């Protein structure tokens, strides 16, 4: 499990940070760089797709879910046809195109989308199906050490914890259902992905609040990306930036714009104080 020891925070910021939970009913969590190390996604999950997509297509090509994934990717490629380097995928009904040629086009299209960091539903859908096979045997979802204890504490306080990630809901459930802490899905109350909207768009957060039937100000959104925290804040949500080892460094402007956490535990100053005392006793 990845370690992220709670830092000793200055007392003058503790009150502001802990107040983020005032009148909060929903905790909305990002995954990459927030609950889970970026390295797990970048160095484990994504390389698995790159290395195994061709074999996956060979094994599952004629199955309905795979065919649906391919059609979604074809439509995405059609939508992106003006983009430089995009790889078009022949229609599955095109009898003039042999299976190998079509498979090669799908593989190249998937790699192009990943190379260009496209967080589109068609790609996430295929990735989710591939990870489904790997989790439990080849993969375990990595989590920071503070994640599960804090989710449990939120639950005891009557708050619901939901996930909002660019990864598909299916992929989210695979990660949390097959984590290094076991199956923690029973601790989570909801999942959102790009089907509700992009994470950099204000309307996405408005839609989430409406779906959860709460006021935007009753949601606390925790993410490592200011481009996501900003539209959430504009939509009326409370937002804070989570700084984890390996995350992109924040500018001074970003640090002054948002409350900063290095551990979820910092939302409870007394928990931090206990951690500091235990550290001092060692």
Automatic annotation (TrEMBL):
Gene3D superfamilies: 1.10.720.60, HAD superfamily/HAD-like. The lineage of its organism: Eukaryota, Metazoa, Echinodermata, Eleutherozoa, Echinozoa. One of its GO terms (cellular component) is nucleus. PANTHER family: ENOLASE-PHOSPHATASE E1. Monomer. This is Enolase-phosphatase E1. It is an enzyme of class 3 (hydrolase). It is found in: Cytoplasm; Nucleus.
């Amino acid at each position: 499990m990845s370690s992220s020891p709670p830092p000793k925070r200055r007392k003058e910021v503790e009150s502001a940070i802990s107040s983020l939970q005032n009148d909060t009913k929903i905790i909305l969590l990002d995954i990459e760089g927030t609950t889970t190390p970026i390295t797990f996604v970048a160095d484990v999950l994504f390389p698995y797709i790159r290395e195994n997509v061709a074999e996956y297509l060979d094994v599952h090509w004629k199955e309905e879910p795979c065919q649906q994934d391919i059609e979604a990717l074809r439509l995405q490629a059609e939508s992106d046809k003006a983009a430089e380097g995009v790889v078009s995928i022949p229609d599955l009904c095109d009898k003039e195109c042999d299976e190998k040629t079509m498979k090669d086009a799908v593989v190249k299209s998937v790699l192009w989308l990943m190379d260009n960091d496209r967080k589109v539903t068609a790609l996430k859908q295929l990735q989710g199906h591939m990870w489904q096979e790997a989790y439990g045997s080849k993969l375990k979802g990595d989590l920071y050490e503070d994640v599960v204890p804090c989710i449990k504490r939120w639950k005891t306080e009557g708050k619901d914890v939901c996930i909002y990630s660019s990864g598909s809901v299916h992929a989210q459930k695979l990660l949390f259902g097959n984590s290094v802490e076991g199956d923690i899905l029973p601790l989570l109350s909801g999942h959102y992905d790009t089907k509700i909207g992009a994470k950099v768009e204000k309307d996405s957060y408005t839609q989430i609040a409406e779906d959860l039937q709460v006021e935007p100000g009753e949601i606390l959104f925790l993410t490592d990306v200011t481009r996501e925290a900003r539209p959430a804040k504009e939509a009326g949500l409370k937002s804070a930036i989570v700084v984890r080892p390996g995350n992109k460094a924040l500018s001074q402007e970003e640090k002054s714009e948002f409350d900063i956490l290095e551990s979820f535990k910092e939302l409870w100053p007394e928990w931090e104080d206990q951690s500091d005392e235990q550290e001092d006793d060692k």
